[in-house]
């Protein structure tokens, strides 16, 4: 059965898309830990990030780097943190989270951000990728 991320890639579930290439997709997390919390995924479904082929993993990180640079221009922060947890959805993905303190990288109750604000944020980041 396809993961929720594969269903997003296939257009079955909507998302606030930030960037897309032939092989990768970036979209705002629907359970954000900070404003601008973005997920970068390979379009090919693979459960564990370290089971990706070397070229695919390197490509994902380079894609995430481009997205992180754009995200930092849109969301005021000291850094863009990166996390790979890989437990909540069995599809390799990278979390990009705007940070101002180390304590900002704690997965807790998500922020509630209205859909229109998410759409505006995704468009601003997308314009800079």
Keyphrases for this structure?
single chain, 129 residues, alpha+beta, HIT family, subunit A, five-stranded antiparallel sheet, 32% helix
Walkthrough of the structure:
The protein is α+β, with helices and mostly antiparallel strands and 129 residues long. It has helices spanning 4-9, 54-74, 115-128, and strands at 17-20, 24-28, 38-42, 79-83, 94-99. A hairpin with a 3-residue loop joins strand 1 and strand 2. Helix 2 crosses helix 3 (115-128). The longest helix is centred in the middle third of the chain and has 21 residues, at 54-74. The radius of gyration is 14 Å and the shape is globular. The mean pLDDT is 95.
Calculate the terminal CA-CA distance, rounded to whole Å: 31 Å
Measured by DSSP, the beta-strand proportion falls in: 15-25%
Poorly predicted parts: none
Helix content, binned percent: 25-40%
Task: Provide mean pLDDT, rounded.
Answer: 95
Q: What CATH architecture would you give?
A: 2-Layer Sandwich
Count every helix, treating DSSP H or I runs of 4 or more residues as helices: 3
CATH homologous superfamily classification: HIT-like
* The top level CATH class name: Alpha Beta
Q: How many distinct domains? A: 1
- What is the overall shape? globular
What is the gyration radius calculated from CA atoms?
A: 14 Å
Instruction: Give, in spatial order, the strands making up the sheet with the most strands.
Output: 1-2-3-5-4
Say how many strands there are. 5
Backbone structural class? alpha+beta
Give the oligomeric state.
single chain
Q: List SSEs in N-to-C order.
A: HEEEHEEH
CATH topology: HIT family, subunit A
Question: How many strands, which pairing sense, and closed or not: the largest β-sheet?
Answer: 5 strands, antiparallel
């Amino acid at each position: 059965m396809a993961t929720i991320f594969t269903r997003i890639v296939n257009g079955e579930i909507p998302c606030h898309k930030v960037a897309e290439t032939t092989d990768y997709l970036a979209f705002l997390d629907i359970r954000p830990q900070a404003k601008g919390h973005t997920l970068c995924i390979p379009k090919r479904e693979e459960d564990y990030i370290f089971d990706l082929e070397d070229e695919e993993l390197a490509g994902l990180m380079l894609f995430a780097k481009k997205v992180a640079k754009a995200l930092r221009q849109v969301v005021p922060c000291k850094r863009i943190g990166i996390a790979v947890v890989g437990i909540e959805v069995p599809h390799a993905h990278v979390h990009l989270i705007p940070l101002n303190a180390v304590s900002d990288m704690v997965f807790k109750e998500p922020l509630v951000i209205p859909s229109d604000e998410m759409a505006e944020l995704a468009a601003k980041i997308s314009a800079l990728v």
